[in-house]
Amino acid sequence: MPRIFLTANWRYLIMLNYAVDPAALALFVPGGTELDFWNGKTYVSVVGFRFERARVFGVPIPFHCNFDEVNLRFYVRRRDGSTDEYRRGVCFIKEIAPRRLVVWGARRFYNENYVALSMRHVVAPPQNGEVGAFRYDWHFGGRWNGVWADVIGRPQAKIPGSEEEFIAEHYFGYTRQKDGSTVEYQVEHPPWRVWHTVDAGLDCDIAPLYGERFVPFLQAKPTSAFVADGSAVLVRRGQTVWRPGESLL
User: Which residue range is the domain that position 125 belongs to?
Assistant: First the structure.
């Protein structure tokens, strides 16, 4: 079992989900993996959340334990040769964080496409039947961009086989390295409960941040939107699982 790289709490995860043309994702799929479909559709998700009590190799990094993150991600799977079963995973197109050391570490250890931008948040879970509000903003292109969701009630367990379960319950990450190889890392956490939203949206300069190919999808209404309550998580050190020249699956 690979060594634990990072532990943290991931809390109040806004997840806005969009069905996309698989062709828009083809260039981003790491070798040795394939796009994962749910009911015949491929998805990207804009995810904003709180990163709390972060420790790297068990050590807290001063001024870098608590921060916001927003990412654009999609879903893949890889056949495990030892079990012949599929591992369902996540790939990131771009990740935003406000701490430059966090960005450096993610680029250095996983070759993730992180950028450092000023960020702010609103985290107000619902109380006494009132509407709760969650929002994560980042400063880009001379203005504040943001993702938000309003919810009510208590978070509920996800229905097995639902779209929410497909989106939220992925326990591996895959990244393409500079030499073309693919690294797999495992993420461990208990199943999350979710709030369904009464309102949610994205206000973002899509083309300069994510590329023109994502404009038609991200400017549309999300296919679904929910907020996960989150939990403690641990991320294990990555391992190379595919190199150029090997069979794709």
Answer: 4-242
CB 12 within 8 A of CB 49: yes
Strands (E), the chain: 4-20, 34-35, 42-56, 59-60, 67-80, 85-97, 114-116, 119-124, 132-140, 143-151, 156-157, 172-176, 182-188, 193-203, 224-236, 239-242
C-beta of residue 152 within 8 angstroms of C-beta of residue 200: no
Q: What is the pTM of this model?
A: 0.94
Chain segment 86-112, per-residue pLDDT in tens: 999 999 999 999 987 777 776 777 778
Residues 6+ apart with CB under 8 A from 224: 17, 163, 164, 167
Report the number of distinct structural domains present in the chain: 1
Q: Is residue 247 part of a domain?
A: no
pLDDT digits (tens, 9 = 90+) for 226-240: 999 999 999 999 999
> Comparing C-alpha atoms, which of 106, 72, 111, 107 is closest to residue 210?
72
Q: Which tokens in the block code for residue 146?
A: 């943001």
- Residue from 9, 18, 10 nearest 200 by CA: 18
* Cα 72 to Cα 48: distance, rounded to the nearest angstrom: 9
Beta carbons within 10 angstroms of residue 87's beta carbon: 19
> Which residues are within 8 A (CB) of 9 and not within 5 positions of it... i.e. 6 or more apart?
50, 51, 52, 53, 230, 231, 232, 233
Q: How far apart are CA 235 and CA 5, in angstroms?
A: 6
